[in-house]
Protein 1
Amino acid sequence: MKVFDNLKKNHYYKIWFKDAWPYLTGAVLLSVFQIITLATTGNPWGVSGVLANWGAWLYQAVGGTVDKWYYFASEGAQRTLENGFLKDPGTMRNLGIILGALFSALIASGFKIKKIKSWKQVVAAILGGLLMGYGARIGFGCNIGALYSGIASLSLSGWVYGAFLFIGAIIGSKLLVKYFM
Amino acid sequence: MKEVELDCLGEACPVPLVKAQKKIEELEVGDVLIVQIDHSCAMKNLPEWAREAGHNVEIEEIDDGEWEVIIEKVK
Amino acid sequence: MSDTNISENQDGAAQNSSIRRSSRTRSRKPKKNQIPYGIASFAAIVIVGLLLLRVSPTLGLFWYVGNCFGFILQKTRFCFTAAMRDPYLTGGTSLTKAVLVAFAVTSLGFIAIKYGAFAKGLPIPGQSFVVPISLATCAGGFMFGIGMVIAGGCASGTLMRVGEGFIMQILALFFFVVGSLWGAHDFGWWKLNVIMKGKPVFMPDIFGWLGAIMIQLLIIAFLWIAADKWARRKQES
């Protein structure tokens, strides 16, 4: 339709929706929404904790139970599990990230399905995913919850996590170049 | 003045940049490296690296979510 | 310094190209304009949020904020993985520096909120994120660091890339979930044998509120300079 093609030529469409924004803008905007998050929800942003709950729900769906696990023993955890996927705010936030990114790509006419190219990518995704999931649980979070939110919350744990994250990234890079490129 | 194509479609995060960095060493001054990418990170980090390294860079959008990063080796 | 000038006319040919090259190496198909789909997805996001708000304000809030995070991450190509990985792998530190700026700005906002509560005698929000420091912190960070580089994205990055259409990240996300369940299963052991040996350290408890933010900003400034010098050095070699 002509109106959409004309939109592509609009200056404001280009600078706000089409072009990529600078990293610094991202740093400031993410901070704004982190601060909004802490102020409105009482906690900073977190991503990986929700994924453990997704795991529990999936496990329950195939007949498993996490009722005896220490990790899910607290009242809060039990209540979250009972309320289910659709009533979990954290779940909505994570799904929101996916949709927000989708919108950003579509509105810039930059969305494309990228299929898996090789078995190397399959192994990398599986191994990488498992390491991230496990590491996030024992480290009390991921790059957001443990690193970003941890540091911003003035918890020394954030810096310690960050230092080892950095070392891990170096090892990961060596592995990537050697086996997965 | 050679033109070399580097197909990085479907590659995961740092791969296009790392491959481009390696490839450009094989080229001579004046040669042109054309990197085909479909990764949104790469359409930013490839030109950024190439510019800071002093080369001439241009990006062209080929299709929705696909770009060609054209790098002319300057030094 | 990340302006990428994509010059093109209607059918995608580069205008005013200063780089001489042979004719198009790949045939140009007419690009589909995805803007209508973009607008549709925006409408869907708004509507889903309204539906969630009817169930509970919290659900709607988390949904909309999540969408903002996703949009910002994609639009700015923000990547924590690259911030940690690129100094070693590619010599680049622009994202590292951006992440450090994010730490600084967020810290300022967070300490203001926390101090405000403290000064009024109210419970300080977000303290559940001040967690014990133990070998588990180290092991967890280390594992996550390896994992995120191999998988091509961290937690937020993986979600973002699912939204961008990367099938590989859908796979990574699934195994992230599996790994999380595994970690949750083992968490009891870690808690008893490792985590309990550590303690949480809230920096204002040690340095006072002013001291804590000053030290935090000093550390960030120091790291920023280190990142800047590192990139310059790499460029010269």
Note: Residues 1-5, 7-16 of chain C have pLDDT under 50 and may be disordered.
Protein 2
Amino acid sequence: MEVAEQRLTAATFEELAMPLFDQLYNFANWLAQDRTEAEDLVQETYAKALKGFSSFQTGTNFRAWMYRILRNTFLTSRTGLKASAMVALDSDDAPELPAGPDTPEALLLEHSQHQLLQTAIEALPVHFREVLLLCEVEEMSYQEIAETLSIPMGTVMSRLSRARKALRDSLGPKQVRT
Amino acid sequence: MADDWTAKLETYLDGELSASEMRDLDAHVRSCPSCAADVLSQLQLKRAVHSAGKRYIPSSEFRERIRKSVATKPRRSPIRMWLGATAAVALLLVAGLVSWSGRQQQMQRQQVFSELADLHVATLASANPVDVISTDRHTVKPWFQGKIPFTFNLPELQNSEFTLLGGRVTYLGQTPGAELIYQIRKHQISVFIFPDRAVGRELGSSSKSQKELSFNIESWDQDGLRYFVIGDANSNDLRSLADLLKKAS
């Protein structure tokens, strides 16, 4: 979503930002894990983005810019600070996750698998959770994720890989291949 | 040997390898059952996370609140837009109804006129065109007593070119009415009189001059009666007969 060189007006902001609303709301909920907090987060993100829109560089990635604002807003919030502190403690170890059921029947039930997966994603430390969601749900490229999270691409890849491993581990022995 | 590839599988599935690496890995996955199984399992997880991750949907109120907070130009609210759209649809409907009912009315009028033209022709073609043969209006008018549910006045024709030939009872849409035959020069003219409530509704209350199958028709509404003057005489003759009838009532 590259924004072509054009006169950036407030009307342009609305046109660019509103299509991202659903995705940002979803992402905010995954980060904050609380509806009210997520709404505050989205509201603050839009307010900040509108205010700072003149500083947005045309020709760069608007979506990454919006996600970056959302994420930074989250990280400086109370919940965000707590969440990132948790990551700092076990930063380089694979996160401990609640063990999933090991019956293959349970995994075959798509609905329960869906819920299991959601629970497992929720349980991921925020730095793993966000990278996984940006890649799988938002379908961002590594480059875009790196831009959004302001981290090198190598870190994107290693975090993504660890997040997936943690997820597979939590989903039970059946899913573990490596 | 598969280990070299295993590390790259994720990047491969994320579509982030270079084109040549993608090709190489493609080829490898086809020949390595272990990597193929891995790809399948990882792909399943990717898909599952993709759908499980789309979990939270904002309320429309919240969306509207944010939209308003970033909107610069006042946006028409959905309610007002809805109202506007409804009004437009309603207007179209009304216009449609009006034109439909207009057309409907015109069609009904057309039908009445063509029926009257038929009656007129049938009368002229009949061996006994009139049931009461009289040039005297004072004979003709009482003749209708008890035969039709209304009464009417006929004009004095002494100073005109018209001659009354007689009259008969006729029907239009199951309603009995009077048919009077007048003559001017060689032309015979039928004057039909019906109760207005039976035939007038489709015709409107205004006076009309019209042509039906090249017959001229004059029609008007008077004292609850609907008059039709129809014949092959020219429209001026029909109009002067109509004027005489109007004055007589």
Note: The interface with chain A takes residues 6, 10-11, 14, 16, 37-38, 41-42, 45-46, 48-58, 62-63, 65-67, 69-73 of chain B (CB under 8 Å).
